[in-house]
Design goal:
The complex is a heterodimer of chains A (407) and B (323). Chain A is mainly alpha-helical and 407 residues long. Chain A contains 18 helices and two strands. A two-stranded antiparallel ribbon of chain A has the order 1-2. In chain B, a hairpin with a 2-residue loop joins strand 5 and strand 6. The chains are: A mainly alpha (407), B mainly alpha (323). Chains A and B meet through helix 7, helix 14 and helix 16 of A and helix 5, helix 10 and helix 12 of B.
Chain lengths: 407, 323
């Protein structure tokens, strides 16, 4: 951003103004919400080009357009999951039920009723919301680990139901193949090229991208409202939230249902994208994947999970195909047959993140860039920031001990 | 086949299905109950047990393994299984000690969710390691020759011997663990530590060692379960996670930390499963389609867990609602 944009609320003048302050002044002027939406829209718009066709970048990345669409779909799922894990502090291992359940509902709806994409998404999401309500109602009877186990168990129940007793509806192990998607609003075939197709590719991508930006905006709205503040209060200390007079149970259930709705939108889009619903979309490893994506990217931030979804899919689809890991720009082979190890590698990174970097890769990047920017523009402020951060960490440690630990 | 034979057969099958879950669930349950640690990698220990058992059995087996090289040719076939049954628990016990020291201990004071996440990551690493090392295909883990055939039982008729061994081994192990926890000083310290760790430490007893041993025992049980259970199915890298979810259900149904609960929970799940699969249930027709009961077997155990949970959230033998 240039100097002209510098805002009238900026009271300090001259050389002492740091980039951070300028950014804050800038966002004060037009509202952070608009900034987030505009940035998200731009990012989503250039993403497939950057990922798949830009001269240098995409050569290194080796990306392709279909994967870009899939990344956005999982990003929506991850945003919703983070709403639950990152903000309310509930770790669900059953989100495959909403993702896969919505995918099946959308698929069956498209075959039995109508293939209109908007209605298909609506149908899938409705199913996910209703099912999340039931599952949340059952699972939230217990907290902590029991919640995780119960969500896992009930989601598995749906998997087994789809796999055999309900096979007449779901086509069992073969997956649901008779998905019928009709053109959007009866005119726009999602498979045809969109305008600016250098950038955007097919209409399907635009369709998914609109939902992605919408999901980001919606999540931003929730998280910056009093409602979202309650979620965070519950995460920090459930008992205190209860004593303040909040109906914790209701907020937890709503957080669960909301995150189920995101998963539902994503699952429906997945059906439209693939024209097929595999039975595995209900299996619990799918829940595990969304957990890994979210934690890897960074819980408790809006963009962390999106980033995590991208990284996971990238590793799963592209790194897994790599023959050998070489030192960049040389021919020296570090590990041959590298692709086979992608799951182990991801697992290791995941464990490292859980142990050492609770805010994930995104948090690491945030800290790093923030630190570099500050160090360049304002050394005193940088030192002060580091100091407060350290004392913050100390306070947290003290708090942990004063709570008497877990045992 | 008479009705009595049917019923007895179904009960025995249920007992055997439950037995494996009990072995896995007891370890899970005592670690959860005493150490307050959620081990999503418990299934990985089962996996390690299964593969280690398979390797030892193949290596020592008479037909072409070490025993033959050493000149033993007349003591009967398939004795490689016994060393596996003894060595694997010891090995997995050591693995468990390492896990307590380097994975669990740093996480005792961190939130439940972090414990789940780190053990989940660990489970993935172990599973994929086995996939890379041994391939993703299923390997047949043959039952030892002395226990591979059927046996004639009084009421039931023909019944696979190995399934009887599974029930027997489980019963002995469960009894041993129960005696250990209820009637030894070690068990007393661990139980006291569950109730009030600070008080125990004030009495001059360091809890570190009992805890690490308890974790090892839980791990060893999962390892034995792997050796005993693997000959019932094929060995592949997914069996660890396959057994983990039902084991968690057993813990939830029975109540955390309760050995009695794990036994009852395991038997209940085994019975529901075996009844839905094999019992001559009445034919029910809903909306023109006849219900095939056996296809509901997997769903049934989850439904059972749901019912128990709605009526007794703390489990059948759980004492209090924690967390």
């Amino acid at each position: 951003m240039s100097d002209e944009v510098g805002s009238p609320t900026d009271e300090t003048t001259g050389a002492g103004v740091s980039l951070v302050e300028r950014y804050e002044a800038f966002t004060d002027g037009i509202g952070e919400e608009v900034v987030v939406i505009v940035v998200a829209t731009l990012a989503v718009a250039v993403f497939p080009w950057l990922f798949a066709e830009a001269p240098v970048v995409s050569d290194v990345l080796d990306g392709y357009r279909g994967l870009a669409t899939l990344m956005l779909i999982w990003a929506i799922f991850a945003i919703g999951f983070d709403l639950l894990l990152g903000y309310t502090g509930l770790l669900s291992f059953g989100h495959a039920a909403f993702w896969g359940g919505a995918a099946y509902a959308a698929g069956i709806f498209s075959a039995e009723v109508t293939g209109e994409p908007l209605l298909v998404v609506l149908a899938g999401t409705t199913f996910a919301v209703l099912f999340a309500w039931v599952l949340g109602f059952l699972s939230l009877r217990r907290g902590g680990i029991y919640f995780s186990i119960l969500t896992l168990a009930f989601a598995q129940m749906l998997f087994y139901m789809a796999s055999s007793p309900l096979a007449f509806l779901t086509n069992g192990e073969n997956g649901f193949t008779s998905v019928e998607i009709t053109p959007l609003l009866g005119v726009l075939d999602l498979g045809t090229e969109a305008p600016f197709h250098m950038l955007l590719g097919e209409w399907l991508y635009v369709f998914v991208a609109v939902f992605t930006v919408g999901a980001i905006w919606f999540a931003y709205r929730i998280l910056n409202s009093p409602y979202g503040t309650v979620f965070r209060a519950i995460r920090e200390n459930e008992q205190r939230a209860e004593f303040v007079g909040l109906n914790v149970w209701r907020y937890k259930l709503m957080s669960f249902v909301l995150s189920g709705a995101f998963a539902g939108v994503a699952g429906s889009l997945f059906t439209i994208h693939g024209n097929y619903v595999p039975l595995e979309s209900l299996y619990w490893t799918e829940s595990g994947e969304i957990v890994i994506m979210t934690v890897l990217g960074g819980v408790g931030s809006l963009f962390g999970p999106i980033f995590g979804a991208g990284v996971y899919l990238y590793v799963e689809n592209i790194v897994s195909g790599m023959e050998a890991l070489t030192i960049p720009f040389t021919e020296i082979v570090l590990i041959s047959n590298f692709g086979v190890y992608w799951h182990i590698l991801l697992g290791l990174v995941f464990v490292v993140v859980v142990v050492g970097f609770p805010r994930g890769i995104w948090g690491m990047i945030e800290d790093l860039t923030g630190f570099v920017v500050l160090a360049v523009t304002d050394r005193e402020a940088a030192k002060a920031r580091v100091r407060t951060k350290l004392s913050g960490a100390r306070d947290r440690t003290v708090e942990t001990f004063s709570r008497g630990g877990k045992r | 086949m008479t009705l009595a034979a049917d019923i007895a057969g179904i009960l025995l099958n249920g007992l055997q299905t439950g037995a494996i879950y009990i072995l896995v669930a007891i370890g899970l349950s005592i670690i959860l109950g005493t150490l307050r640690f959620v081990n999503f990698a418990h299934g990985a220990l089962y996996l390690i047990g299964a593969y280690a058992g398979l390797l030892i059995t193949l290596e020592i087996d008479l037909s072409n393994g070490l025993l033959r090289e050493w000149g033993f040719q007349t003591i009967g076939l398939g004795w490689g299984f016994l060393p596996a049954l003894i060595l694997v628990p010891l090995f997995v016990f050591v693995v468990g000690l390492g896990m307590e020291r380097f994975v669990a201990r740093p996480f005792y004071d961190r939130p439940d969710t972090d414990q789940i996440l780190v053990t989940f990551g660990l489970a993935i690493i172990v599973q994929e390691l086995f996939r890379v090392l041994f391939g993703g295909q299923s390997i047949d883990f043959a039952r030892p020759a002395w226990a591979s055939g059927p046996v004639m039982l009084p009421v039931v008729g023909n019944f696979p011997v190995w399934r009887l061994y599974v029930i027997g081994i489980t019963a002995v192990l469960v009894a041993l663990v129960w005696l250990l926890v209820e009637y030894t000083d070690f068990g007393l310290i661990v139980r006291a530590g569950t109730q009030d760790p600070e008080m125990v430490e004030l009495l001059g007893i360091k809890l570190t060692r009992p805890y690490i041993v308890m974790f090892g025992i839980g791990a060893a049980l999962a390892g034995v379960a792997g050796v005993v259970g693997a000959p019932l199915e094929n060995v592949n890298p997914n069996i660890g996670t396959g057994v983990l979810v039902p084991a968690f259900l057993v813990v939830v149904i029975g109540g955390v930390g309760s050995i009695r609960g794990a036994v009852v929970g395991g038997i209940l799940i085994g019975m529901v499963f075996s009844i839905l699969v094999g019992a001559p249930l009445p034919q029910v027709t809903v909306a023109g389609t006849e219900i095939v009961w056996s296809s509901w077997a997997q769903v049934g155990i989850y439904a059972l867990a749901a019912v128990v949970l709605l009526t007794r959230p703390e489990g059948l033998f759980g004492e209090e609602v924690t967390g």
